[in-house]
Amino acid sequence: MSASPAAEPLIAVRGLAKSFNGKQVLRGVDLEVMTGETLVVLGGSGEGKTVLLRHMNGLLRPDRGSVWFSGQKLNDLDENALGEVRKQVAMVFQLGALFDSLSVFDNVSYPLREHTKLSEAQIRDRVRELMRAVDLGDGRVESLYPAELSGGMRKRVALARALALRPRAVLYDEPTTGLDPLVTDRIVGMIRSLQKQFGYTSVVVTHDLKSGFAVGDRFALLDQGRIRFAGSADEVRASSDELIREFLRTAL
Ligand SMILES: Nc1ncnc2c1ncn2[C@@H]1O[C@H](COP(=O)(O)OP(=O)(O)OP(=O)(O)O)[C@@H](O)[C@H]1O
Ligand SMILES: [Mg+2]
Fold this sequence. Notes:
Number of strands: 10
Mean pLDDT: 91
Bound molecules: adenosine-5'-triphosphate, magnesium ion
Shape: globular
């Protein structure tokens, strides 16, 4: 799963600062996501993890600093060009963000209808393939509505929709929060197998280091608006950083 030694950063964040209503959330974040790796971003609630992710696919614009995708500086792009980037950098939102009034099938096929010229038959095939990839391939779920799904199923449908356009990178915002341990293990297993199968570059935001260890190649800790620590699982385990030790205690 780990990136090759000659790996290039697919996503780079340099000196990123962002405030809302005068409150500074990010104060100079430097972070690279190497091609093919799974980077886990840890941090407490409200530290700005979601805000950081939303900069990585251009949903937010920096106050200061820059964000790069595949050598392209996102700061300079207009909405159209950012739309193209978002097709390649998919985001699985913290709360799933499915369209409540659309069936599962219509949710998953939505990006295909919006952004491709696939025929109805091709769309059906692709939705089947995506539903299989998230272990919902028996055809029974497609006609259901989001309100009829369990939390774990909703996350998987959201994941299928995020993968519809075959992105190069996937940003997961708290993919396991609020799920019981069994479903958490299942989602973690799915993120790993999708990563293996398709070679996505992934960023997984979580405050759950246990599931972080199960998916991540590398780990970064966001604290008070900056990256306080970045390193491998072994470096996390060996760290004497107080906050890292605290995360470690919750991962036992
Ligand atoms: N669009 C926005 N407008 C105003 N404030 C915002 C906006 N987005 C985020 N914030 C603020 O930025 C801070 C960081 O929010 P963020 O959602 O990134 O935290 P988080 O680390 O993802 O937390 P959690 O673990 O609870 O999801 C919070 O104080 C939040 O209120
Ligand atoms: Mg968040």
